[in-house]
Amino acid sequence: MAHKFAIYSILVCLAVSWGCSGQKVTNVVVETETETPEPENKHPDFKNLLGIWKITSSVRNGEPHDKAVGNFFTFDETNLDAWIRDYGDIIAPYELDPTVEPKHLTVKLGNPPNDRIYTCIYELDGDSLKMCFKDRERPTGYESTAENEWTSHVLVRTESME
Q1: Does 49 score more than 90 pLDDT?
Q2: CB distance 33 to 7 below 8 Å
Q3: Where in the chain is the domain with CATH 2.40.128.20?
Q4: Which one of 57, 102, 109, 146 is CB 3.0 to 4.6 Å from 121, fit for a cystine?
Q5: pLDDT for 131-149, tens place per residue?
Q6: Which CATH number, 2.40.128.20, 2.40.30.60, 2.60.40.1090, 3.40.1700.10, labels domain 44-158?
Q7: pTM of the full predicted structure?
């Protein structure tokens, strides 16, 4: 782009030096190179996570967490919309890091969006999503126990929240 700007500057200088300084210069077209921005997140997980997910099983602190079963998570490009029975919608920004093992998902709740930070790990396999999380302390596995106080969900992709 600096190259094109230099050419434009030279053309203006030539027009002035040739005596065109008192005349209008019209139809000067300067082409600029426009770069198509690369998608910020190229990993397939960013696209494959989008949509509605229903919790089919859940374990919290080593015990079945039946109240979570039937709740929904909806992922768009930047936010997680969690529909939680008895609470309604909770919308929060999320970040993925699929380049580490296990893969990381971080959800920021509150005002500003960092009052509560849920650090998760996840496995995405087609229309099945497994995740395990804890407030501010990222789990290292998927088995929830009373000692580690993790919450683990298994979700399936669905077309609607029914």
Answers
A1: yes
A2: no
A3: 44-158
A4: 102
A5: 999 988 999 999 999 999 9
A6: 2.40.128.20
A7: 0.71
